[in-house]
Amino acid sequence: MSEAYIVEAVRTAGGKRKGALAGWHPADMGAQVLNALVERSGIDPAAIEDVVLGCVTQAGEQGFAFARNAVLASKLPQTVPAVTVDRQCGSSQQCLQFAAQAVMSGTQDVVIAAGAESMTRVPMFSNISYHAADGVGVGPFSQSILDRFGVKGFSQFEGAEMIARKYGFDREALDRFALQSHQRAHAATQAGWFAKEIVPLAIEGGWHARDEGIRADATLESIGSVKLLSEGGAISAANASQICDGASGVLVVSAAALKAHNLTPVARIVNMTVTAGDPVIMLEEPINATRKALTKAGMSIGDIDLYEVNEAFAPVPLAWAKALGADPDRLNVNGGAIALGHPLGATGTKLMTTLIHALRARGLRYGLQTVCEGGGIANVTIVEAL
């Protein structure tokens, strides 16, 4: 089977809720990423055969063929098709895997995988209606689903609490991890680690090129002062991912396209895995998915130089590392979503962008990315930096 290569990987800097990127239409944010991928790679935009773009809350400004609208807002020709993907928080990671599969199968040679989400302009869950106007609708979970699992509903917040209890992490441990996320993200920003991966966006008074959610002055005390989300629990807004506006994307090509368009790869796809498990605890599935991916790749966790595990909630990467015996010094080395934000459908290719740039900057070889997803699903992607 043919290889799939990543030629460029970019992202916008994260914007806080009602923050610097609130004035940006999400289709325009996505368009800027598409433009940057083409401009930085030097490829003829007409050579792009498809755009696969992730978005979770497909309503309002993110509704009605959102990926196609991002293309129409970009400098790509109108002949470039596009499709929107929703695999919850792993949407754009799945876009990357779909793009790589298209290339590896020989179906296509040049595909953009991307994601965009404005959580300010299209709030989370605004695409869900629990009661139709005539009183018939009951929302996305039918009674048969709820009966099967013996629940009144599915909650990621409750799933996070379940993981914290199962793996023995109290609030202090979660808060310490959250503090580390801010410290690492601040250090990476100060050192210029993110400069090459960020696409600046014009805002009033200048350019947005710095992740807005990083709290350089965070302390264990300030994080610990934030109210818990449930009485007797361990999860607070301070040790969970930040609501975020942003976009990201990667350009995926075949070996033939590398030669035809004189492109230089920055990474090679080594393994793509997706698994599903318990939809109640839900956020634990990256552990199982990672085990399966490593087995399929013939690798061990020790072979991986850096890991990006989405910080949806602090217990997710902590439980992942504990269960797999992963080195915490290789985990989210430039901080994660607790500090940098989690722009839902854009997070997958955002994490991949940061992972590839971090590997190459450090002269390292293998990276692994995984994201927990609603419904108990998880994607894992292993890459080799080139």
TrEMBL record:
Residues 263-384 form the Thiolase C-terminal domain. PROSITE patterns: THIOLASE_2 (PS00737). The active site is at C89 (acyl-thioester intermediate), H342 (proton acceptor), C372 (proton acceptor). It is an enzyme of class 2 (transferase). InterPro entries: Thiolase (IPR002155), Thiolase-like (IPR016039), Thiolase_C (IPR020617), Thiolase_CS (IPR020613), Thiolase_N (IPR020616). Transmembrane segments: none annotated. Keywords: Acyltransferase, Transferase. GO terms for molecular function: acetyl-CoA C-acetyltransferase activity. The keyword Flavoprotein does not apply. Residues 5-255 form the Thiolase N-terminal domain. Its EC number is 2.3.1.9. Signal peptide: none annotated. PANTHER family: ACETYL-COA C-ACYLTRANSFERASE, BLR7806 PROTEIN. Belongs to the thiolase-like superfamily. Thiolase family. This is Acetyl-CoA C-acetyltransferase. It comes from Novosphingobium sediminicola.
